[in-house]
Design brief:
The complex is a heterodimer of chains A (about 120) and B (about 190).
Chain A (H helix, E strand, L loop, with lengths): L14 H12 L2 E2 H11 L8 H13 L3 E3 L11 E4 L1 H23 L3 H4 L4
Antiparallel strand pairs in A: 1-3, 2-3
Chain B lengths: L1 H30 L3 H55 L5 H25 L1 H31 L5 H29 L1
Classes of the chains: A mainly alpha (about 120), B mainly alpha (about 190).
Chain lengths: ~120, ~190
């Protein structure tokens, strides 16, 4: 029996949503910062465009996983987003789900498949 | 000296043009978004896209911006489809409501037929003839259309379970109504 993160298992999260939460769990960011950090942290594997990024941001905001930080009086200041406690719980549950999946794959002897052998 | 300044000015003018045109296109694309997304994220989306285009231009020049076009258009196209699909799923007549509506209508039609058959079987027969195509269309057609629209266009993990539940109920009602029909004919 594996230890659960203490939250009921939720449905799988999208790659972009997961990356956004991972970046925001480190520090609050604005849109472009998020785009570049996701590209950097995923080693170029996931490079969301502005359209895709904001679809994911809207969904996360609607689900209460992220919220907007208060903007300064300067009108030119960018909107910054931060992860909420509910977002952290979702992230923890998703990482636990992925870890469990990976463990299952390893138990089935799957690392050999990653090397390209049949 | 003067020519150099002019070249610098031209470069900055070209740069501005190279960046401002895609930003103008993005601004127009954002106008196509559903109103709620536009109101919530419109200005921020434009600012982020502008920053992205400006950085691409700074790093790779106008050619890089030119190469960015297909990616940008594909990205906004996919985002628009997702936004409208999400807006429809959350609207009053989303896939779940549509499936429940079809289920309710299909059940009502069959209750009507059964009630009519209790009084006069000829009535029931003519009602069956009239209502059968409608019931089949509603009980199968609408949930199937809703299912296709919500699952084939783009899988939405949040609405999938609820849609599947309503579709299961619709399917159960359809099987039930077909059983009633079979008993009636027998």
């Amino acid at each position: 029996m594996h230890d659960s993160p203490g939250k009921p298992l939720q449905k799988p999260m999208g790659h972009v949503e997961l990356q956004i939460l991972l970046v925001l769990s480190r520090h609050p960011c604005h849109g472009y910062e998020l785009m570049s950090e996701i590209g950097r942290s995923s080693a170029g594997l996931i490079e969301p465009g502005p359209g895709t990024l904001y679809v994911a941001l809207r969904r996360l905001a609607a689900g209460g996983a992220i919220s907007e930080l208060e903007r300064s009086a300067d009108r030119r200041s960018r909107r910054r987003y931060r992860i909420t406690s509910s977002g952290r719980a979702s992230l923890r549950a998703e990482l636990w789900r992925l870890e469990r999946l990976l463990r299952q794959a390893k138990e089935a002897g799957w690392p050999r498949g990653l090397a390209g052998s049949s | 000296m003067a020519s150099r300044t002019r070249r610098q000015l031209m470069n900055s003018e070209d740069r501005k043009r190279a960046v401002s045109f895609p930003v103008a296109v993005v601004t127009r694309l954002v106008r196509l978004y559903p109103a709620r997304t536009r109101a919530q994220f419109g200005d921020d989306l434009i600012a982020t896209a502008a920053e992205f285009i400006a950085y691409t231009e700074k790093r790779g020049g106008q050619r890089a911006v030119l190469r960015l076009w297909p990616r940008l258009l594909a990205d906004f196209g996919a985002a628009l489809v997702s936004e409208y699909r999400d807006a429809w799923c959350e609207s009053r007549f989303g896939p779940e409501r549509l499936a429940y509506l079809s289920l309710a209508i299909a059940l009502s039609v069959w209750i009507l037929i059964l009630a009519a058959s209790a009084f006069d079987s000829r009535w029931a027969a003519s009602l069956l003839d009239a209502c059968l195509p409608l019931t089949i269309a509603l009980a199968f057609g609408l949930p199937a259309a809703a299912y296709l629209a919500s699952h084939v266009v783009r899988v939405d993990r949040n609405s999938r379970s609820s849609t599947t539940t309503s579709l299961r109920l619709s399917a159960a009602a359809t099987v039930g109504s077909w059983s009633v029909l079979a008993c009636h004919i027998a």
